[in-house]
Amino acid sequence: MPTLPSAPLVYFQIKNLEAEEANFLNNQTSNPNFTYSNYYNQETINSAKQAHPGQGMDLVESSFKLQSDASELENFKRLNRELYGEPSKEIAEKIIQFFAGNHTFVSPEVFNTYREYLKQYFGDNFKVDFDNLESALTYYFRLSDLTAQGWRLKESSTAMTTRTISRIKTITYNRNHTSIHPRAYAAIALHEIYGHALHPVEKPATTNLLKASEGYAIFLEQLVHPNFRIHRSLRYLALSFAFGLTDGTPKNFRDTYNVLYDFCIKNSGKDYPSIYPKDIEHRVFLETARIFRGGRPDLPGAVFTKDLIYFEGNIAIWQSLNERPLQFYEFYDIIKGDKVIQL
Q: What contacts 86, CB < 8 A, 6 or more positions away?
């Protein structure tokens, strides 16, 4: 019998995303009705709980119960809170102020220091423009020493996202993945190869370890761009809106989508990468779907909160670098995978 996954996000992979997006945007449904991976069934979940006892599989089991029993919501929320935490009203307000031009997370001087370090590390091999994801992953994989460590790249036509699986030393990706941002492919390659594969998270993975890991991987993404860009902020706002942090009213999928959509319309066209005016409906749907996967789109606040750790972890990385600036030789050791940024 193949090894069953232990990560909730594997069980929460949405199979009917495109169809539900079309139904939702055409107002044929009030809230999406997602179906999930083939692992998402009672028999498999029971077996996985025996193989991987702990809160991760408890959350998957709670999610499965929640689909038919709304009274499971409080237990689902509790497990999310204990595993990943809850969104912060203070952070949400800072994000809103950032988009309004009234707050900065990182000074240009600090950002430029580490971008120059990254360029210095790769030298003439530093490259940010690729035609597709596969070419970016292959390029940076060859520059690393992962092959000598037994790692491999594996193409999968069913993969929804690029993912590093340390247990089997594999980075899976879908060569059909496309992006409207020209530097996104390099960002993903650096995130997975130099962020995760060279910095595997020790088990058991605590919330702080996950924040440090994801925050650092996003830090590498940001250094692909010539200026600081606020990554993963929309899904943090989506979680905040679903929790009702900004107005006191928890929201279901449709209401969360509407508030986030209005926010994006108000801020579209400004100089940051998170919002593209021509793609707002699609982008907002995907961000809202990410937080409601595994939850219940029709229930206010029934969200999967793992995406909190990306933004909070990234801001913690930059705060650490502000407080304890690195010399290039220290940065060099971190990029190679010999050391980590201490939070």
A: 80, 243, 305, 308
